[in-house]
Amino acid sequence: MFKKLDKSQFKVIGEKGLPEHYPIPKNIAGLLFYIQRNLNKNTVVYAINKDANGYLNETFPMKVFWIKYDNGAVIAELNKLQTKAFGYSSKKINNTTFEFVMDSHKQLRFFIAQNEQNEFNIITKINSKDALLSNIYVYANEFGLFPKVEYIELYGNHIDSDLPSYEKILI
Question: Which H helix or E strand runs over 83?
């Protein structure tokens, strides 16, 4: 589903970014994208959430959950604090398209959209070009109760060329 992005294609200034040994979620029905962090390999997964009629759930078009790789790849729900960090707000555009923003970083806009093969993807701007998002990496310093996010990295493929796309955003 997602192409493995070789970080060596990009010059990343500062921290090393997404560790190459981090796992890529597999066999997740309706996988849209995932978020990994420097704190551990545990991964937050965003997957399609359909209602009983097979349409995207109008209130929450995505299910959000953990894959706890540090505990043997166990799937777990987010707690309330984690939901604030990894939750989202969305609005329906039509039955197959939703716009959403992450609760923790509302400046970025994302779209859930269905393609010609009836598969859902996440579309966003990566380096000012439309791209299919595959994953996000969050680098944070953990001081005190709440980690301080230093930067995020967006990974995907440009829609027009299908070439890998990457952007580092300092927070």
Answer: helix 80-86
